[in-house]
Amino acid sequence: MAPNILRNIPSVSDLIDSPQLKGLIDRISHNVVVTGVRRTLDDLRKEVAGAAAEIVLPSISELAERIAGRILKSEVPHLRPVINATGILLHTGLGRAPLAQEAIDAMNSVAADYASVELDLTTGQRSQRVVVVEELLTQLTGAEAAVVVNNNAGATMLVLAALAADREVIVSRGQLIEIGGSFRLPDVMSTSGARLHEVGTTNKTHLADYEQAINDDTAALMRVHTSNYTVVGFTAEVSLEEMVALGRRHRLPVIDDIGSGAMIDFAKYGFANEPVAADSIKAGSDVVLFSGDKLLGGPQCGIIVGRRESLEKISSHPMMRALRVDKITLAALAATLRLYRDADKAEESIPLLQLLSTSLENLKNRAERMAPQIADAEAVAVAEVVEDVAYLGGGSIPTQQLPTYCISITPAHGGVDQLAAQLRAGEPAVVGRIQQDRLLLDLRSIPPRRDQDLVQAVGKTESGAEKRG
Question: Which of 75, 122, 205, 337 is buried most deeply by CB count within 10 Å?
Answer without folding.
Answer: 337
